[in-house]
Structures are given as structure tokens and as C-alpha cells.
Write a structure and sequence with these properties.
The structure is a single chain. By secondary structure, this protein is an all-alpha fold. The protein is 76% helix and 3% strand. The protein is built from 13 helices and 3 strands; from the N terminus they run ααβααβαααβαααααα. The chain has a 3-stranded mixed β-sheet with strand order 2-1-3. α2 packs antiparallel against α5, α3 packs antiparallel against α4 and α5 packs parallel to α9. The protein starts with a helix and ends with a helix.
Length: 347
Amino acid sequence: MSYFYRLKLMKEAVLIKLPFTSLPLLLQTLSRKSRDMETKNYSSSTSGFVLLGLSSNPQLQKPLFAIFLIMYLVTVVGNVLIILAVYSDPRLHTPMYFFLSNLSFMDICFTTVIVPKMLVNFLSKTKVISYVGCLVQMYVFMAFGNTDSYLLASMAIDRLVAICNPLHYDVVMNPRHCLLMLLGSCSISHLHSLFRVLLMSRLSFCASHVIKHFFCDTQPVLKLSCSDTSSSQMVVMTETLAVIVTPFLCIIFSYLRIIITVLRIPSIAGKWKAFSTCGSHLTAVSLFYGSIIYVYFRPLSMYSVVKDRVATVMYTVVTPMLNPFIYSLRNKDMKRGLKKLRDRIYW
């Protein structure tokens, strides 16, 4: 019985309710908040937010539209190919590729939350997003983004067990444990997102409703609030440290253990072989966490519109686009799986 077939049987026995249990509560709260705003007689211009986008230069809108459309299509096609290759090749039915296929799915969802709306805004004059739509976008974006970070941590644990404890690999990384790690990643991420958005929904917006960003991110929206955001910032920073730093520390600990173990291998060839299995994952982690740390782990007073836009594009668009290339170009198993998938399509 294959690894993925056993996982499928286990998934059928587990009712996964994560997005569906938290979204109704979120939508109910946001609808109530939206009605409260309307009763306060805000003008029509303040019934939603205006997304400024990457550039306000009219001459750049169409070139930017073309660039990001191509990047989005490459992201979707590349990650779909990774998913199909993993599920169609029995030799890729292992924990590492199970997590990789789920990471590809999350990357597709992650970019789909942001890029299509951004593409519409490139060709639109209004660039408006409703209050509820803004907070829903924020919720879904954070849920999939956080799940990405936990999946990267799960992949680091997989490499740790494979290199440091290979004799017990099949026992430790069995289908049940992998499924629990996936469910745990989704649960923590959705609860974190729900908490953050409910916190944001308590803020008041009295003056400018122009978000100097291309989507509803936490820091740009906080800058617009006329409420006292000091307590919100403190809670957000503390909770973000707990939720986002945990998988990052897990990755750091895993690779420290891996380095110590690999250095004990006597032959250079053995050391290179062990390290080569981690290269793709380390590259993806560096791209993802490098930009996230730059954007989110700074006080609101140090927020820079231009620099943060560039850094945010890196982890919301560029990294999901590059992940299929990172995990396939130097990976013989993935190349074989993609070739097998190509042969199936053409035959």
C-alpha cells in the first residue's frame, strides 16, 4: 500500500473543518462591523479602502500588468506541475514530497489571494476594495502564508530525521504523523489569522482610507487607523513572534543538528551527498523568511512604503514562482517525475 494511498484513507477518516469553522465567525463579525460603520454616517469614499498599488504612474500600469500576469501564470502552472508529478509517480510518494506538494498548493492559494486583485487594479481607475473584502483578504493571506512557514518547518524536520536518524525514519515520518503535522500547520495558521483580523476589525478609520500598498497587509492598514494602535501593535508583535518565530526556530534547530551530524561523516562524498538533499529547502527558506523578517519584525515607526512593497513582492509573488524551479532543477527524483508526467500527457 503506497504512502499516498494510506494518507488518502486517513484523510477520509478525518473531518477537516479549519477554514469553514473560522470563516463564518469572521464574516459574521465583519458584517456587524461594516453595519456599524454605515450607521456612523461615513461618506461613500470611506465605505472601503483604496489600494494605491505598486505605482501611481499611469504609464507603468500596463507593463506592470503584463509582468505580474506572466509571473502569476508561471507560479500556477509550475506548482500545479509539481503537485501532478508527485501524485502521479509512486517513487515520489514519500513524506518530503507529500509536504512539497502541499506547499505548492498553498503557494497557489497564497498568490491567488493577492495577484488577481492587483491585476484588476492595474487596469482600473478606482482601485477600491470594500472594508469586509479587505479584512477577508488579510485573513486568507495570513492563513496560507503562515501555513507555508509551518510546512517549511515540517520539511526541515523530515530532513533532520532522514539524516540524523535514518533507521527510524519510516516509524517517525509515518503517514499518520505527517497528516497530523499538516493539520497542525493549518489549525495554528487559521487561528492566528482569525485572531489578527478580529483585532483589526475593532479599529476605527476616520481620515484617509488610501492604503499605500497593493493589498491589505497589517502594517499599512494600521497606519490608517485613528484609534490608539499601541496596544494592538504590542499584541500583534507578541503574537506574531510566537506564531511565526516558532517554525523558524524549528528550522534553525533542525539544521544545526544536521550540520553537527554531517560533520561527523568521514568521507567528503558522504558529507556532500547529505548536504545536497537540503540545498533546495535552504534556498526556499532563505527567500521566504528573509523578506518576511524585514517586513514584519520592525516597529510601525520604521515602516517604509517603497522598501516594504519590494520585500513583500519577494515573498508573495517571487518566492512562490521560484519554488517549482528551486525544487526541480537540481532534484533528480523530481526531474524524473516531471518527465514521466510529460510522457503521460503526450501519450
